């Protein structure tokens, strides 16, 4: 966003209604603009939906809708755009399931405020990224943490990690797979309380 | 998502997330990435937006983790792994300390006290990766020397996600009761003389000692122990009930056929402005639903509307009557 090329491109895109994005632009936009909203989005979905096992699927549906809609027209305010999608999705599910309609309706009304208030993600940018990632690493299950540490900190290959950990390369891969999946959840979905206080 | 796409992609978001991570590891971390692998990945990504999104997300996270390379130690020698990991662990443990006071017990194990106020909610991570979430108005002491992991719950409620370590069992003390984990997730709530322990996953041992002597029980997932100074009961609770008990982790209180008096008492744990039910008849009204723990006014408004109650608001209290 500080890059001038990027900023001028943004300006142009915004002025053209219905301007489409190319695939790489769309991907970069998703990572840069949408993923940082995940913590707020998850909080919003969790607060408004009792069955926490469905929330990850909700989040995916919100992302799909945002990604596909942005392909054809880049939204002006990403935050209100994403939360409007989430809100409509929740209303839709509530109508179909009839679960705690009273309280959910109350919270849905409060959504417009939630979508406007500056979220925690604003300050994420200013924070020490290394410390954040380190703290996320610390929260991984033990074996995953070891594998990811050896890979990312020590820069070892899978085979070297396997020797160090006394397991097969296949097992190392499995630890890394689990480790990265968790890292994504932590880094985007649930930054640590301690970091918020910093 | 269109119906056609759903029928092609019956996988859950969670499964797609793991699949995306598998692709990522295969591409960047494993050996022998071929053109045919790339073609397969491309077609998987093109198959559904869900795939593309999951891949972008895990790839972005992995790239962010590349910054950890800044912590690289010069020529890591075999055998240095464990101390090095500990350095990272200790650094992170220091970061999570909030309002902690330090003192040492007679046995010399350093302890830290963690306290949350009314309406508070904090998470702390121990050096082994175990996590403890403190609910409102909670105080607990942690002795985590590495060799010994002991937590004393003085008051309030905490949710434990414990990394199993057979050689260093994790112990929670509360009054004359003790929970010893065998690798678990569990919830402990201490309210005056009553202790409630709910086991969500794994196994744990519950010990209690009262005037009648010692009692011991092994807990399995779904077991809920209610212990008072004079009684001990263990019941099997459905998953739903355990989920409800954990509602506070996402800021909500879940009531299923609770009385108004019970619901008011729950709200009062979280808020300085106390709800007073001034009429014994309305105290038995039946409450269902999920409500924000920090918004007693919204709860009172619903009561007013649905049960036609009178509401009198004062600085410290909200009085409900017929």
Keywords:
heterodimer, A: 198 residues, mainly alpha, Arc Repressor Mutant, subunit A, 2 domains, disordered N terminus, B: Jelly Rolls, 3 domains, three-stranded mixed sheet, 8 helices, 30% helix, globular
Task: Write a structural description.
The complex is a heterodimer of chains A (198) and B (322). Chain A has helices spanning 4-15, 23-34, 38-48, 55-72, 78-97, 101-109, 111-116, 121-124, 129-138, 142-153, 158-165, 169-189, 193-197. Chain A has 198 residues and is mainly alpha-helical. Chain A has two domains: 4-124, no CATH class; 129-197, Winged helix-like DNA-binding domain superfamily/Winged helix DNA-binding domain (Arc Repressor Mutant, subunit A, Orthogonal Bundle), CATH 1.10.10. Chain B has 322 residues and is an alpha+beta fold. Chain B folds into three domains: 3-68, no CATH class; 88-241, Jelly Rolls, CATH 2.60.120; 251-321, Phage tail protein beta-alpha-beta fold. In chain B, 30% of the residues lie in helices and 35% in strands. In chain B, the strands form three sheets. In chain B, strands 1, 2, 3, 4, 5, 6, 7, 8, 9, 10, 11, 12, 13 and 14 form a 14-stranded mixed sheet that branches. A three-stranded mixed sheet of chain B has the order 16-19-18. Chain B has a two-stranded antiparallel ribbon with strand order 15-17. In chain B, strand 18 and strand 19 form a beta hairpin. In chain B, helix 2 crosses helix 4 (49-65) and helix 3 packs across helix 4 (49-65). The radius of gyration of chain B is 25 Å and the shape is globular.
What is the overall number of helices of chain B? 8
Low-confidence stretches of chain A: 1-17, 98-127, 193-198
Poorly predicted tracts of residues of chain B: 1-9, 74-107
What percentage of residues of chain B falls in helices of 4 or more residues? 25-40%
Mean pLDDT rating of chain A = 75
Average pLDDT level of chain B: 80
Helix-strand category of chain B: alpha+beta
Q: What is the count of structural domains of chain B?
A: 3
Q: Which class of secondary structure composition applies to the elements of chain A?
A: mainly alpha
Radius of gyration of chain A: 20 Å
Helicity range of chain A: over 70%
Looking at the structure, the CATH topology of the largest domain in chain B is Jelly Rolls
Order of helices and strands of chain B: HHHHHEEEEEEEEEEEEEEHEHEEHEE
What Rg of chain B is obtained from the alpha carbons, in whole angstroms? 25 Å
Distinct helical segment count of chain A = 13
Total E-strand runs of chain B: 19
N-C termini distance of chain A: 24 Å
For the report, how would you describe the main beta sheet of chain B?
14 strands, mixed
């Amino acid at each position: 966003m500080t890059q001038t090329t990027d900023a001028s491109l943004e300006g142009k895109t915004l002025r053209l209604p219905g301007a489409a994005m190319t695939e790489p632009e769309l991907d970069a936009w998703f990572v840069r603009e949408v993923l940082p909203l995940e913590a707020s989005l998850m909080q919003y979905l969790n607060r408004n939906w009792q069955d926490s096992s469905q929330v990850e699927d909700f989040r995916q549906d919100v992302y799909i809708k945002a990604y596909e809609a942005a392909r054809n027209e880049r939204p002006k305010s990403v935050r209100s755009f994403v939360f409007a999608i989430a809100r409509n999705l929740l209303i839709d599910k509530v109508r179909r399931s009839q679960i705690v309609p009273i309280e959910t309706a109350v919270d849905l009304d409060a959504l417009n405020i939630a979508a406007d208030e500056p979220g925690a993600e604003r300050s994420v940018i200013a924070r020490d990224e290394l410390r954040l990632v380190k703290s996320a690493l610390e929260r991984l299950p033990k074996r995953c943490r070891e594998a990811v540490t050896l890979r990312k900190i020590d820069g070892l290959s899978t085979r070297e990690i396997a020797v160090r950990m006394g397991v097969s390369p296949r097992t190392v891969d499995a630890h890394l797979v689990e480790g990265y999946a968790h890292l994504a959840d932590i880094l985007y979905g649930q930054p640590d309380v301690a970091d918020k206080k910093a | 998502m269109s119906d056609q796409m759903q029928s092609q992609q019956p996988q859950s978001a969670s499964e797609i997330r793991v699949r995306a991570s598998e692709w990522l590891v295969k591409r960047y971390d494993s050996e022998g990435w071929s053109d045919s692998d790339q073609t397969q990945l491309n077609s998987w990504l093109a198959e559904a937006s869900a795939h593309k999104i999951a891949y972008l997300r895990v790839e972005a996270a992995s790239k962010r983790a590349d910054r950890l390379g800044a912590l690289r130690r010069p020529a890591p020698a075999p055998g240095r792994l464990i101390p090095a990991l500990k350095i990272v662990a200790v650094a992170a443990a220091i970061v999570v300390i909030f309002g902690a006071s330090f003192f040492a017990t007679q046995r010399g194990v350093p302890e830290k006290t963690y306290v949350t106020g009314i309406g508070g909610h904090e998470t702390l991570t121990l050096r082994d990766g175990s996590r403890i979430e403190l609910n409102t108005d909670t105080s607990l002491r942690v002795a985590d020397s590495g060799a010994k992991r002991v937590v004393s719950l003085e008051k309030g409620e905490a949710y434990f996600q414990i990394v199993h370590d057979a050689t260093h069992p994790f112990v929670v003390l509360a009054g004359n009761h003790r929970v010893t984990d065998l690798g678990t997730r569990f919830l402990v709530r201490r309210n005056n003389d009553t202790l409630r322990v709910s086991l969500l996953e794994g196994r744990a041992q519950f010990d209690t000692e009262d005037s009648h002597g010692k009692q011991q029980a092994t807990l399995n997932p779904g077991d809920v122990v209610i212990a008072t100074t004079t009684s001990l009961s263990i019941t099997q609770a459905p998953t739903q009930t355990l989920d409800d008990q954990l509602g506070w982790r996402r800021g909500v209180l879940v009531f299923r056929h609770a009385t108004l008096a019970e619901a008011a008492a729950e709200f009062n744990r979280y808020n300085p402005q106390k709800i007073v039910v001034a009429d014994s008849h309305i105290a038995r009204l039946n409450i269902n639903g999920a409500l924000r723990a920090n918004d007693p006014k919204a709860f009172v408004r619903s009561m007013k509307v649905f049960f036609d109650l009178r509401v009198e608001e004062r600085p410290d209290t909200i009085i409900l009557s017929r």
